[in-house]
Amino acid sequence: MKARTTGDQSPTGKPATSQGMIIMKQPTKLENSLYAFLETGLKGLRQIEVASPYKGYPFQHQPGLFWSSCLNTDVSRLGKQGIVIARHQDPYTRKDGDQANFKRYRLPDRKAAREALNHLNQYRVKRGAEPLSNDLASMLVDQFPDTVPHEQAS
Predict the structure, then answer these.
(1) For the chain, which terminal residue's Cβ has fewer other Cβ atoms within 10 angstroms, N or C?
(2) What angle do CA 53, 37, 48 make, to 5 degrees?
(3) How far is the C-alpha of 112 from the C-alpha of 137, rounded, in Å?
(4) Which residues lie within the region annotated Disordered (predicted)?
(5) What is residue 12's predicted lDDT score, i.e. its pLDDT?
(6) Is 21 part of a structural domain of the chain?
(7) Number of folded domains in the chain?
């Protein structure tokens, strides 16, 4: 039987347990958004792709799903933490042929990806989870270019 952590620390510094079971806290929305931006790479995300709590963006390399009813607010929250997010217009063509205007958001380069990874791992450790494996972390960060000179970022 596995122990479950409450995410709290006991006086010994080990995860607190409930009846001998470790209770792992769920990832926060901010943690999921960081992982989604890392995983989607240069493609990034737009609101219409993540709007449904039933569909959203399904993670490819770990269990989970990212969805957001207001992606621009999530991007703003990441920006306030010093994470650079690039954005550009990416219209969506509806079945009737009309277009709806959306912005696509993504991490612009490897420096921003490393910063996002650092924040992500801090959130993971804080809730009692292990940081991403070195192999997965390298794969996620290495898909970004070293720098992207001509892109609007926040």
Answers:
(1) N
(2) 40
(3) 13
(4) 1-20
(5) 46
(6) no
(7) 1
Look up the pTM and report it.
Answer: 0.78
Say whether pLDDT at 1 is over 90: no
Evaluate whether 39 touches 144 at the Cβ level (below 8 Å): no
Task: Determine the Cα angle at 106 with ends 63 and 26, to 5°.
Answer: 30
DSSP reduced 3-state for 59 = coil
Identify each DSSP E strand in 54-152 by its residue range. 57-58, 65-66, 86-89, 92-93, 99-100, 103-106
The domain containing residue 106 runs over which residues? 26-142
Return d(Cα 154, Cα 78) in angstroms, integer.
Answer: 10
For 68-107, the pLDDT digits (tens) are 999 999 999 999 999 999 999 999 888 999 998 999 999 9
* In the block, residue with structure tokens 């607190």: 16
Q: How far apart are CA 92 and CA 100, in angstroms?
A: 5
DSSP lists the bridge partners of residue 87 as: 105
